[in-house]
Amino acid sequence: MRALAARLWRLVVLCVKGPGGRLGLVYFAAILALNFVGIQITLRLIAWNADFYNALQKLDAGEAVRQMGIFAIIIGINSAQFLIASYIRKLLQIRWRHALTSVMLDRWLADKVYWHLNYDDGAAVDNPDQRIAEDCRLYVNLLTGEALELITTLAGLASYVALLWQLSSFPLAFGLFGMAIEIPRYMVWAAPIYVAVSSGVTHLLGARLMRLTVEQQHREADFRFALTRLRQSTEAVGLADGEAVERRILDRRFGGIVANWRRLINQELLLGCFTRPYMATVLRIPVFLALPAYLAGQVTLGGLMQLGSAFQNVVTSLSWFIFSYRDLAELAAASRRLDGFLDRIDAIASRPPTIARRPSGNSTLRLSGLTLDDPAGRELARVPALVITKGEAVWLRGRSGIGKSTALKAVAGLWRAGGGTIEMPGGTQMFLPQQPYLPLADLRAAALYPRPADGEALTDGARLLALVGLAPRAEAASLPGDDPDQQQRSLSGGEQQRVALARVLANRPDWVFMDEATSALDQAAEEQLLALLRRELPHATFVVVAHREPRGLGPLTIVDFDATMAASTEPVTAGRTPTPHYAADAIPALS
Ligand SMILES: Nc1ncnc2c1ncn2[C@@H]1O[C@H](COP(=O)(O)OP(=O)(O)OP(=O)(O)O)[C@@H](O)[C@H]1O
C-alpha cells in the first residue's frame, strides 16, 4: 500500500511539474469546491424528501406542488454544478496528460535512452510506446477521477453521518434469550457494518481481478506489437511466404489474450454475483431498516424518506471502495507500469559509460585502446587504435560480425560499454546506417532530416532529391494529395539510401560516418554518388564501413579490423592508401 502511494505520488509530482501542470492544481481546487457545493445540494435534497412526503401524507396538494417547484430548482443547480465540474475535470485531464506525456517523452528521448531501452538486454522494456501513449492517459484519467471522488466522498460522508445521527434518534429494541436489548441510533451503526462486510467480500472476490487486468493489458500490447511488426515487414514476409508462421505467432499471442480474458470474465462474474445485488438493494435497505420506527409511529412518512435518503448517502459514500474497485485496480496497474518504466530510465541514466568519450580539442578523431563489451560485460570486439584527420576518407573493413558497426555506434555515443578512449573532433557529424530512417513526412522533408522542413526548405529538399537521382520522386512528392507513406513504401532499398545521401548534402556535416550506407546501390551509382558527396563537401571527412571498396571519395585510408584483432595498439594514421580510381572532379554529375 505504501509502495502504491509512493508510486502515485511520484507521478502526481511529474504531472504538476510538467509543462502547464501547475495550473492543473487550480482546476483541481475548483472541482473540489464545486463538489463541496454538490454535497450541500445533496443535503438540501435530503431535507426536501421530508417536506415533500410529509405534504403527501397530509394530502396537502398546494404544498406538494410548491415542493415540486423547489425540486426543479435544486435539480437545475445540481445539473449545472455537475456539468461544470466534469467539464473542468476534462480540462484538467488534458493538462496533466500533456504534462506527464511531455515529461515521459523528455526522459525517453534524453541521452538516447530510447535506444538503450531497445538494445540493452539489462534495461529492455516491453512496449515503451504503450507506456507513453496508453498508460499516461489511463493514469491521469483514473487519478483525477478517483482522487477527486475520494476527497469529495470523505467530505460528504462527514456531513451525511452528522445528518443521520441527528435523524435517527430512536433506538432499536428487541428481546434476545429473554433479555431486552436496545441499540440507540442503530441506523448510524448499521451503515458502516453493512459496508464493512460488503467491502471485505468485494476485496476477497476482486483481489485476483487486479492481477488479471494487468496481465490482460500486457497481452493486448504484445498482440498489437506483433501486428505492427508484421505491417512493417510485409515485403520480407511476402517474399518468404511466411504467412503461415506469422499466423501462428499472431494466433498464439491472440490465444494468450483469450485465455486470460476468460479468466478475467469468470472473476468479473464472481464479483458481479455480489456487487450487482448489492447495488440493487443498497437503495431499499435503509427503508427496511427504519420501518420499525415508522410502524411504531416514531417517524412520519417524510421522516422515513429523509432517513432513507441520508442512510443511502452514508452507505454509498462508504461503498466508494466497492464501486471503484475496478478503476482502482487499473490505476494501480498503470502507475506500477509507469513507475517501472521510469526506474528503467533512471537505471540507464545512472549507469556511467565505461568508454571515455571526450573532445580531442582539434580536428582529429582519435580512438585508443577501444574495446566494446555487450550489455552483460563480455568483450565483443577490439577496435584498431586510430587517428583520423580532417578531410580524410577512411575505409573500415573486416569480416562480418567483427565489430565495425558497433565501433561507429561507440563513436556516435550510443554504445557506451567497453573500455578505452574516444576523442571526438570539433565540427558537426552525421551517421548513416545501412537502413535509412524515413520520418513520417513527405520525401522532400525526409531528404532534409534532421534539418527542419518548412516551405522554403522543401524546395531545397526537392533539389537535393534530384541531385541524387530521385527527380521524379521529388516531383511526385510536391503534388497535392501525394501520400507520403505510399511514397516511402514504394522506394527501393537503393532509393532509400539515395535519400540518406541527399541528407548529407542538406546538412553539410564536417564528418560523415557511413555504415554500409551505399550497400544497396550498384557500384557505378555508388561511385557517382560518393564522388558527388566529395565534390559538394570537399573538406568533409568520410569514415566508411563497407565490405567493398568505396570508390569516388578520393584517396582512401584503409583500416583493417581483422588485422587489429591480432592486437595492434599503434595508431593507424595512414594504412594502405590506394590510388583513387577516379579523380573526384572527373565524375559526371547525375542527371
Ligand atoms: N545489442 C547487442 N547485444 C549483444 N551483442 C551485440 C549487440 N549488437 C551487436 N552485437 C554483437 O556485436 C558483434 C559485432 O557486431 P557488429 O554489427 O558491430 O559487426 P560488423 O562488423 O558491423 O558486422 P557486419 O559486417 O556483418 O555488419 C556481433 O557479434 C554482434 O552479434
Automatic annotation (TrEMBL):
One annotated GO molecular function: ABC-type transporter activity
Protein name as it appears in the record: ABC transporter permease
Major localization listed first in the record, in broad terms: membrane
Membrane topology: Multi-pass membrane protein
Transmembrane feature ranges: 25-48, 68-88, 186-206
Residue ranges of every copy of the ABC transporter domain listed in the record: 365-587
Keywords, sorted A to Z: ATP-binding, Membrane, Nucleotide-binding, Transmembrane, Transmembrane helix, Transport
Protein family per UniProt: Belongs to the ABC transporter superfamily.
All residue ranges annotated as the ABC transmembrane type-1 domain in the record: 23-330
Compartment annotation: Cell membrane
UniProt-listed Pfam families: ABC_membrane_2, ABC_tran
Species this chain originates from: Chelatococcus reniformis
InterPro entries in UniProt: AAA+_ATPase, ABC1_TM_dom, ABC1_TM_sf, ABC_transporter-like_ATP-bd, ABC_transporter-like_CS, ABC_transporter_sub-D, P-loop_NTPase
Any one GO CC term of the record: plasma membrane
